[in-house]
Design goal:
Structural class of chain B: mainly alpha
CATH architecture of chain A: 2-Layer Sandwich
Helix content of chain A: 10-25%
Strand content of chain A: 25-35%
Number of domains of chain A: 1
Largest sheet of chain A: 4 strands, antiparallel
Number of helices of chain B: 19
Number of helices of chain A: 2
Order of helices and strands of chain A: EHEEEEHE
Distance between the termini of chain A: 22 Å
Structural class of chain A: alpha+beta
Shape of chain A: flat
Radius of gyration of chain A: 19 Å
Distance between the termini of chain B: 66 Å
Number of strands of chain A: 6
Largest interface: A-B, 27 and 49 residues
Largest sheet of chain B: none
Oligomer: heterodimer
Shape of chain B: elongated
Strand content of chain B: under 5%
Number of strands of chain B: 0
CATH class of chain A: Alpha Beta
């Protein structure tokens, strides 16, 4: 019963095995890829392990406070070397092993020629909001 | 129609149906329909005098059993497999007055069945024994209602073939209840309070010292709850808690329950943990904590469970009873015993934090500060991460100043 974030990256992740940019897939291949992920989410909803999933636009900005009375600093629309996150899914599973197993399945989404793309997904546990009470001597 | 009354009656009604031969999922559906019927026909005022002679309020549980059983039979008759089930039902002895106690107890065992994953067992227990709605459970676990509904219906399917006449494993039930307690979210449903309520109910039905031990442990932890976090949400360690704000009624109740359990001379890990919690709760100030006795209880716990977490807590107690050097030596023994507690693999939660604390007590502030910062990276939740980061910052400031 721990929540994990499965992160898909646009870049900065190691290259997938089936590394063909999406714009060179056929529309059918793209549909199959999206369908795979939708089916995956629907299946996790049935097992009681799905929490949330969203896709993110590739455009993003870094923003920083720049002092009293001044507008925040942004780096503009030019994302160059920074990491970009394509989307995420939050799952609620019994163990880290189960989270890794599911990320493995999601990484097998079909790509060019309908073959699995073997993309790298990042698996990050959520920090629980409240400490648990399992120990006597500290809390 | 009174929600508390309904919640207290539901598990018993469900238990009667399942024992009479209804499978779990069908029984649950039938009970839900009976509850809907109850909402429709029961008087708003639940006192017996307000209802007419022989009305549902004379025997609400009997009324619910009768209606739910009729709903179950209706559903069964229209089912393709009706012949098989009706034969089975037919062979059951005629339903008479049932001892409700055993039925609810069986329900506990069913919901904590070993074939269920921990999260499914927890969800099913809250639903069937606790009588919570799917929405309440979903909100308590911060997942969508549809997700929780599926988790519960999968769990029901998993146990649908389990026979209802076998005594289950008390230890599994207790583990599930302790899982619920440790979630402790508050909101519409406070899972810690719910776990205490259910464990209390279980303790009333089953004479087992470990059930009493777990109930005592929960009450003793719960008594300190208000002081465990500051108003800003940050963690307050035991030594710094305002003991005047501990719930003394809850502590006293926990101690009485624990003493009665210990007198039975069938020690188990929950009783030993409760004994440690009781010694902490009993100390008027942190300086007056009886660490020697706490250490003795940790030795018992090591004998009973020998888990790395227990050995880690024991090292803290050694540090308090015999000094930080002895504590660090106990920690080193732990590393030899468990290859994953340091270095390779998953670091054991809080091992680094304990090492940092013992080094600070020993006067080695540089090592302590470095270890606190490292421990902050391994912290399992935000409150602990913030706490440990502050400890590192405190020591670094002191070393510079």
């Amino acid at each position: 019963m721990a929540k994990y974030l499965l992160l898909k990256h646009y870049r900065s992740a190691p290259a997938p095995v089936n590394n063909v940019p999406m714009d060179q897939w056929t529309p059918e291949e793209i549909s199959a890829h999206v369908q795979y992920m939708n089916d995956f989410a629907a299946r996790l909803e049935k097992t009681g392990e799905f929490v949330d999933g969203q896709a993110l636009a590739p455009e993003g900005s870094w923003v920083r406070y720049d002092g009293e009375g001044r507008p925040p600093v942004t780096d503009g629309p030019f994302a160059e070397t920074k990491d970009l996150i394509a989307g995420w899914m939050v799952i609620d599973v019994d163990s880290h092993e189960r989270a890794v197993e599911l990320a493995g399945e999601l990484s097998a989404a079909p790509g060019k020629d309908g073959k699995p793309i073997h993309e790298w997904l990042e698996v990050r546990p959520f920090l629980a909001a409240k400490p648990s009470t399992t120990e006597c001597t500290f809390k | 129609m009174n929600e508390a009354l309904i919640r207290s009656l539901t598990p018993g009604v469900l238990g009667v149906l399942v024992r009479r031969g209804a499978d779990f999922a069908a029984a649950e559906d039938a009970v839900q329909e009976a509850l809907i019927e109850a909402v429709r026909v029961w008087p708003a005022d639940p006192s017996p005098s307000s209802s007419s002679r022989g009305g549902p309020m004379r025997d609400p549980k009997g009324w619910l059993v009768t209606v739910a059983w009729r709903k179950f039979l209706d559903a069964t008759r229209s089912d393709a497999a009706r012949r098989l089930r009706e034969d089975r039902v037919d062979q059951e002895p005629a339903p008479g007055p049932a001892p409700a106690v055993d039925d609810t107890l069986q329900l506990y065992f069913l919901c904590a069945h070993p074939s269920l994953t921990p999260s499914s067992a927890v969800a099913l227990t809250l639903r069937a024994v606790g009588g919570l709605t799917t929405r309440q459970i979903a909100e308590a676990y911060l997942v969508p209602e549809a997700t929780m509904a599926q988790r519960i219906s999968r769990a029901k399917r998993t146990v649908s073939d389990v026979r209802f006449d076998q005594p289950g494993d008390v230890a599994t039930v207790l583990r599930v209840l302790y899982l619920v307690f440790n979630e402790g979210y508050s909101g519409d449903v406070d899972l810690s309070s719910e776990a205490i309520r259910l464990t209390r109910q279980l303790a009333a039905q089953i004479d087992h010292p470990e059930v009493a031990g777990l109930l005592a442990l929960m009450l003793l932890h719960h008594a300190r709850r208000a002081t465990r976090t500051a108003p800003d949400g940050s963690l307050v360690p035991l030594a710094e808690q305002d003991r005047g704000r501990w719930d003394t009624a809850s502590i006293a109740e926990g101690v009485v329950i624990l003493q009665a359990a210990l007198a039975r001379d069938r020690l188990g890990e929950f009783q030993a943990q409760a004994a440690i919690a009781a010694l902490h709760a009993d100390a008027p100030t942190v300086e007056e904590t009886d660490w020697v006795q706490i250490l003795e209880w940790y030795d018992e716990l090591v004998r009973l469970t020998d888990s790395p977490v227990v050995r880690l807590n024991r090292a803290v107690a050694v540090g308090e009873a015999d000094g930080p050097r002895a504590g660090l030596a106990a920690l080193a023994e732990l590393d030899d015993a468990s290859p994953t507690s340091s270095g390779k693999g998953h670091p054991m939660p809080r091992r680094t934090a304990v090492a940092a604390y013992l080094h600070e007590r020993d006067g080695d502030l540089a090592t302590a500060a470095r270890l606190y910062a490292e421990a902050a990276h391994q912290a399992p939740n935000l409150a602990e991460r913030d706490y440990l980061t502050r400890q590192a910052a405190r020591l670094n400031t002191r070393r510079r100043g």
